């Protein structure tokens, strides 16, 4: 019975219906689909637009998420300000902000003079950059604004370029100040561009090349530069402008030459202000536990000096220079002078790196102390935007101040809300109260600057501490200090960085080389010269370097290895070659002599030397003797056969655990070590190589038929164990390698 009969007529009909339906679908979708009219097309378009809409919605959502993440990354205030604990932090930030503003006011006025600018521009630089950093910065405690080191670097640039901009003619004070403001603001824009660019490409690691001794030596020298630059205000002298190398020496000599022209009123004013500031600082240090906030000695001195100057008429009666007119209100934004970019690019990069180095070092100190993280790349962007936007509003380059940062932390500051409050206080002074300081003596500002240098000048004691701790760091400190004093701040920093990097290279060229011995009953190997319990393994030398081997020290590594092994490897190799060459020459002469005798003897000798009948036993004995001589022939080239001294070890193990990379010079040096020691019948092994180093050895085609991975061991103890079990060269490797 067939399948249809078994299924029944109903099942057969259902099967046919399903087949017809499938055929209709096939025709409808592939073969016989009719043309669609406009209504059908519009209907299909409406149905097909739904997936595309969802795709666009998904893309927009992803783009918004990326933009939001990017915004939160580069605008940290949106992250922490909504979570700001008002009850816990606001009071501390208010007190801290007011305390910092009280310091910011006199320092802003004073550091503007240090930069060679009118004092009001110091107030601008204490407002715009501080508020911008409040939005973009990641450190909660550093106080951004004017700083002595940055100001003196700016001053060296403005004093050198401003007269050139006016053709070195006799200029009045207003034109000179306008030119210097343009130079300083353009410099700030360029510094900001450098810092933002470096931050966006994640170049924050650049400050790792500025070591702590370098930074401390540099800031100490900068403090000396600041001190000398303020002498003209302390003594009331008019000095000529000096720039470039040895400018500090020329300034000191000119001050000494013009000391008889000092104005008594100015000297007395500076001395009294300095004494008052020192006394107040001593009181603050002594009463630190009892006082809720430090006594604002600088602000009190500023107010008192201004009142005394106005009441006694110091300018007219005693010829004391005063600040002069301080315009009220903010200045409109001004585009930078792009024609100055080519003249400022070198100084701008130096100022950008120095300013960031100071800010990030202080920021990391406070971050570790209070348990939060500072993003170095975002700090670059924040400082860069502060200088960039500040430069557009005629500010000069800024960084963070050590003294103000310490005050901001010690007075209860918990976030950059304190910085925002201080900037708003400075804004109030700019708009309403700035003109009250018209009669402020410049000598008082100079006294404020000099007294605030106390902390940096104390770093001169580093010489004594570094002499005891680390002579190499002391050398970096001294070279940095001397170069900055003699060559000025920009060239001094370049010389300091180059010298510190060269010193690193020199120190890697002269690492500590040691022969290792085994601590009894352990797998530990230590320097036999330092550890009395460590003993050399008989027949095995283990050699280690404390630094990686590369092109600068590869030759020193090979020389130290041959010296520490106690064997004159080069002498043995040269003597062996001479003896073998001499032996070959003797053999050659003997053969030539025999040939000559044969020619002279002629037929008679040939007849006498005719072959005689030899028994089979004699032939066998001759063949055996010849075979023994052939087998003994290679032994004639050994050190013992040549009468040369043999090394007291049969294996050399190179502990390469200190290697972090290998270059082509290192590869050739290692191959030459294998060749030279095999020439004196010593097998060489390598131990403790890191995986990246092994990969680089493979990429450099170091391993071949003569140097295989059988010569490579995971640890020194594994290599020693193998060498003791195999005192002869490994069977599958030839005795010598071609020297490179």
Kindly state the mean pLDDT as a whole number? 83
What radius of gyration results from the CA coordinates? 42 Å
Main sheet: strand order: 4-3-5-6-7-8
Anisotropy-based shape:
elongated
In this structure, how is the largest beta sheet organized? 6 strands, mixed
Q: What share of residues are in beta strands?
A: under 5%
The oligomeric state is: single chain
Which structural class should the secondary elements be placed in?
mainly alpha
Task: Please describe what this structure looks like.
The protein has helices at residues 3-7, 9-31, 38-74, 77-80, 86-114, 120-125, 128-136, 148-165, 173-200, 212-229, 231-235, 247-258, 264-286, 297-312, 314-318, 341-370, 376-392, 402-410, 417-433, 442-452, 454-457, 462-469, 471-509, 554-564, 569-608, 616-632, 664-679, 691-699, 716-725; strands at residues 143-145, 399-401, 513-518, 525-527, 539-545, 649-655, 683-687, 712-713. The chain is mainly alpha-helical and 740 residues long. Among the domains are: 91-163 and 174-461, no CATH class; 511-574 and 645-728, Transcription Regulator spoIIAA (2-Layer Sandwich), CATH 3.30.750.24. The chain has a 6-stranded mixed sheet. Strands 1-2 form a two-stranded antiparallel ribbon. Strand 3 (513-518) and strand 4 (525-527) form a beta hairpin. The chain is elongated and about 130 Å long. The model is unreliable at 1-12, 26-36, 164-170, 619-634 and 729-738 (pLDDT under 50). It is a multi-pass membrane protein. Belongs to the SLC26A/SulP transporter (TC 2.A.53) family. The chain crosses the membrane at residues 109-136, 183-211, 264-283, 344-368, 380-399, 411-431, 443-460, 475-506. This is SLC26A6 isoform 3.
